[in-house]
Design brief:
alpha/beta, globular, 4 strands
């Protein structure tokens, strides 16, 4: 079974991170790709641009609805299902995200989704 961790992309990498995957659609401002240690940039499993834009207008008020809508996108996504298969070969992965909020970001929802899918395959 794959252990899934979360970390802001701005945090230093650690040997315990395992396979590091950046899971935002847009590259964070002010960061050079060469300076960030990541193994994969997975854009296709991020919230749609429309959903992301809608959520960012009022993140605290829209969090629960955003979570439900993003899960719906993930459940209907071939890319998300392919990603579940892809990460199964790694004992540890770390999902890297750029959001300032550790409590209201799509990586939290993605982690829960992936944990559920991986555990259902066991």
């Amino acid at each position: 079974m794959t252990q899934i961790k979360l970390k802001r992309i701005y945090e230093d990498p650690e040997p315990t991170d395992g396979y590091r995957i950046f899971v935002d659609r847009l590259w964070p401002r002010g960061m050079k790709k060469e300076a960030v240690h990541f193994d994969l940039w997975e854009k296709d499993i991020t919230p749609s641009p429309e959903l992301r834009g809608w959520f960012h207008q009022a993140p605290d008020e829209r969090w629960n609805e955003f979570a439900a809508l993003y899960r719906k996108e993930l459940n209907g996504s071939e890319a998300a299902m392919a990603f579940v298969e892809k990460i199964g070969q790694y004992p540890v992965i770390t999902l890297l995200y750029a959001s300032k909020s550790p409590d209201h970001n799509h990586a939290l929802i993605l982690k829960t989704f992936l944990d559920e899918k991986i555990n259902s395959q066991s």
